Amino acid sequence: MRKKIVAGNWKMNLNFEEGVSLFSEIVNMVKDEVVGDQEVIVCTPFIHLSTVAKMSENVKNVNIGSQNVHQAESGAYTGEVSASQVKSVGVEYVILGHSERRAYFGETDALLAEKTNVTLKHGLKPIFCIGETKEERESGKFFDVIKNQLVNGVFHLSKEDFAKVVLAYEPVWAIGTGLTASPEQAQEVHAFIRETIANQYDAETADNTTILYGGSCNPSNAPTLFSQKDIDGGLIGGASLKSRDFLDIVKVFNA
Ligand code: PEP
User: Fold this and answer.
1) CATH, range 5-254
2) Nearest Cα to 178, choosing from 218, 231, 122?
3) What average pLDDT does this structure show over 69-98?
């Protein structure tokens, strides 16, 4: 059975104190309210990672992610943070290929393949984001776009390494816009992604891959989205900054 996951992406929000306070609320709510096996991942800015990783040490099913790593092992890359550095403070996951990094920082599929390699090399698990822009959806080419992102970003991996990857389908037009893909639109793409993985690897690998949906997910739309056959949870931006909303999304898997 593939894992159900709800991951929060705080992006570049919250100072140190605000982040620690939000994380503390999340941990308390998880302890009190979560009854299933769903995994909760909180992807904070770098400044919070070490502290929240310690706070989550003995909390079942709560793990920490960073929002990026540099592709190099170490060296003269002023302002960057490496995979081994985030690993050393207790991080387990790394978001890669987020559309904001692709759009604003020029991250290409080739660069993301390098980042995926260094992430896995240091025992971290990528949350690899893929998704089409509004123009790509409207032109009907979105299946090709998504397939290319998979082929060039992660399909070079061995089956063993690919098994450590979590995928997140995030239509760019739905991120932070309040426009959510309908459950049918999201399910259609998730099924396509799973079929593409089966063709590249095998049916078992496809069946075991956790594929998250991301894009204006909230407590009202999460139950219908997560009930779709191929949607295994969510990558949550805005709603992950409010502990109550985030937990209500996590609790969709309590039932
Ligand atoms: C995201 O940034 O990954 C995201 C899904 O953001 P939002 O939930 O705010 O649309």
Assistant:
1) 3.20.20.70
2) 218
3) 98
